[in-house]
Specification:
- The chain has one domain: TIM Barrel (Alpha-Beta Barrel).
- It has eight helices and ten strands.
- The chain has an eight-stranded parallel beta barrel with strand order 1-2-3-4-7-8-9-10, surrounded by five helices. A two-stranded antiparallel ribbon has the order 5-6.
- The chain is an alpha/beta fold.
Length: 280
């Protein structure tokens, strides 16, 4: 079985709302043998909490590292202009030497990140906008000119150059299991980032991962489709951690993210990134 790649996954909130500080943590993670470093992409968080822009933070990470995969998990396309995002992705892929991963999803209005600005907050309508935005984004990342007359966008543009280094840039679709529509979207991309809605650090296991993979394959994804899961292995016993990682390896998980939540301190993250990655 292939090794499970290990990533750090954190919100650039609070003490971590400083792109330079996060870049330093990413450099330390690379030195310790981690494979990737990923950040949340939010406009707002809990009231009064500082937040860094995810894409500025990724640029800082790209310049501070040389081998780590990096990306935003996940960018709600319904609040982004896809051509602006395509330009940002291509630029970051060049800056990082072809290490970008793009995470896309529906997003949520729990912190009023849509409704605060008069943007569409209804999930169904945001899903429709996400699908059309994704169609535009993928065409532009492929280096194609685009003529598109859709519900939300009316586009007639030449190719956006330079193209990204990678062809294609890996795009992972987020889905809240067991919802099927976002899973069908993820099946058409390069990977799936399932969210199991757990309340504990590791409240899912190989059976849930296999159920997701089985449905992805039914929807047309290859068995090799990237499977990306997250948990907080540092919060459980050593025995439980070993059992969990063995289960993820048996389920052919591609990436295991060590996940942090808002309120985490830079010191807490640093203690984890300087340790040996749990998976491998």
């Amino acid at each position: 079985m292939s090794p499970v790649k290990s990533g750090i996954y954190l919100p650039p909130f609070g003490e971590l709302a400083d792109p330079g500080r996060v870049a330093s943590l990413a450099a330390a993670a690379q030195d310790s043998g981690w494979d990737g470093f990923f950040v949340w992409d939010h406009m707002y968080g809990p009231p009064g909490v500082p937040i860094a822009d995810a894409w500025t933070t990724l640029a800082a990470i790209a310049t501070a590292t040389s081998t780590l995969r990096l990306g935003a998990m996940v960018t709600p396309l319904a609040r982004r202009r896809p051509w602006v995002l395509a330009r940002q992705i291509a630029s970051l892929d060049h800056l990082s030497g072809g290490r970008m991963v793009v995470g896309v999803g529906l997003g949520d209005d729990g912190w009023r990140e849509f409704s605060s600005f008069g943007e569409e907050a209804r999930p169904r309508e945001r899903g429709e906008l996400l699908d059309e935005s994704l169609q535009v984004l993928l065409a532009l990342l492929a280096g194609n000119g685009l003529t598109h007359h859709g519900t939300h966008f009316d586009i007639d543009c030449p190719p956006m150059l330079p193209k990204p280094v990678q062809a294609p840039v890996p795009v992972w679709g987020a889905c809240v299991w067991p919802h099927r529509k976002p899973l069908a979207r993820a099946a058409r991309l390069q990977g799936c980032f399932p969210i199991f809605g757990s309340t504990g650090p590791l409240d899912f296991g190989p059976a849930e991962v296999e159920a997701v993979r089985t449905e992805l394959i039914r929807l047309g994804a290859p068995r090799s489709h990237a499977m990306v899961v997250c948990g907080a292995t540092r919060l459980v016993s050593t025995a439980r951690r070993r059992e969990f990682i063995a289960g993820m390896r048996a389920a052919e998980v591609t990436w295991l993210f060590e996940s942090f939540v808002p309120g985490v301190t830079a010191a807490e993250v640093e203690a984890v990134v300087r340790a040996t990655p749990p998976a491998g």
